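Incident log, structure service

09:12 report received: a user says their structure output differs between two submissions of the same chain.
09:20 pulled the input from the user's history:
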Amino acid sequence: HIRQTMSGVLQMCSRRTVSVRRQCWKSLSASEPRWYSATPRALDEEATATKKDDSADLRKIAQEYNRRKAAYKRQVSKLRKGYMQEYQRNKAEDDAQRDAEAAETTRRRLERQRAKNERSIQNAYRQQELRRQTELAFQDHLRVQQEKREYEKDVFNRARQLVIDELEEEAPLWLTTPEEIEAAFTPEAEQALWGRPQGVIGVPNPSLDSEFWQYECHTWDMSKTYKTQQDILAEEYEDRVYDETNIDPSYWTPEKIAEREALERKAKLRANVRTEGRKSLLRRQKEFLDDEAETPEGEVPRPKPIPSLGVLGSNKAQEKEGAEMLLKDPTKFFVFQRKADSTQSEASEESELDESYSGPSLGAPVDIKDPLRHNSPQGRVFPRGIGKAPKPDMRSEKEKKRQEREEKLWAAAQAQARSDKDEIDMAADDDMEFYGEPLDYDKNDGWDSDDEEWFKGLDPDRDAEMMKVPREYRYREEDIDWLIQKLETKAGQMQSHVNTTIESMEMETRSRMDDADKMPEAESQPFFDETAVAKLKSVGGDVDRFEKLMASLSKDQMLSLFGLEADRRDSKDEATGSPFDGVPGLTSEQITGLTELDA
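09:34 re-ran on a clean worker, output below:
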């Protein structure tokens, strides 16, 4: 504002000064005329007169100029004083106005600061109250969580105490030492443990039929090479021989096997009942949720409720639901003597849960239905691919050359046809002319089948059952001969392995005997190693007595014993007398001890 006022004053002063100067010069030019003559004078006279006149005129002009300049200065000084007074007066007014505006601005700022401070105080009170309420809510949350933790801790302590009580009750049955384990693994215990599935020893299972067959693991053989019928037959025969070798028929009597199979069927039925009950409950829960989420026409669709997991956690509810289904429709769980009509069975499967089976009488149940195996042609969970070796080419050289010539002619005809026609027409011709009619895979009897060879010599009426045998279970004399040859080869390999093991043991014993002869008596090593000692202790043998017995034998007698053992393994005839009669120099006590050790 001060700059604007000063610039205005200076502009006014400059304008007035210029106007005053113009008026002074006009007055001078009007009051004092110029002096000049009309007649020319001589050059010298004119110059002398001019100098005198000019000096006088110049003096007058200078005086007049000085007088006017002094008057001008006085007027300018007077004008400047007026300007200064006006400027000071305007400046005072501007300062007063500026001070008033600053005071007003300061007053407004202080008022806004006061309102802000009042709001800050209110917010501080509000935050303090909020913190107090939050602290109270947190204390309440801590109290509730502490109660939950105490309840969970109490439940955990009770459950742990129950486990401890059960463990203390079972503690006398625990096997904690190697001697107890060896004593527990008797032949009867091994048969009970490994003879059939779900075998246990030691602590008995409190409920053998509760979790039996509830979970099964099935793995599909994804190998790229299929096994032939001969390989499958060899594996099945080896498994059968292994079972006959390791399963003791004196322990697994028909009564015990029947009892075990009855337990397995009962456990399997309970698992199937629970599975079907779970499916039924989940289906019913889904229908209920669909009804709850149904939205009337014209309204906003409602979200579907979240299903409860209580259905999957209640085994009792699942078994109850499954038992009701079993009583209403037993065909879902059993295989009967007379199969139901296909139409009736399909209607029974599509019926609702509240409808029971109303078909014809099916007789007594003969087996428990297995949903994974009964509908499979091979009776397996996953199909098993069976490889088949290609048949030998029995054609003559003339027939082979004729077929090769026909294939070349056919390829040339196809190439000529493709060159004459465009690709689209050729594709249509390929579909209709070259390849003929499409194949009917249901009536395709031209594949490499063995039915004709299998049916050869069989009577359709008398050998109907044999003609219905699936291809994977058809065995011929060549297959049996191959199986016998493979088993003989494998037996020879195993016998060679046994002989090699005996020879290595004989060499090891011979080296030990040589080292024992070189060592002092006090430093001689025991004959039996730790494994042999453990086996002797497990059957109740006296290890020290057998050690003394083996130490009393000479080197030649030891070698004779190993040779006798190898001959006895190679020989297929059973020995009639004592096997140690051929060892020279044995006493009756040594023969008795060796016989006991061999047993």
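09:41 both user submissions now match this output. Likely a transient worker issue. Closing.
09:42 reviewer note: DSSP finds 18 helices and four strands in the chain. The radius of gyration is 62 Å.
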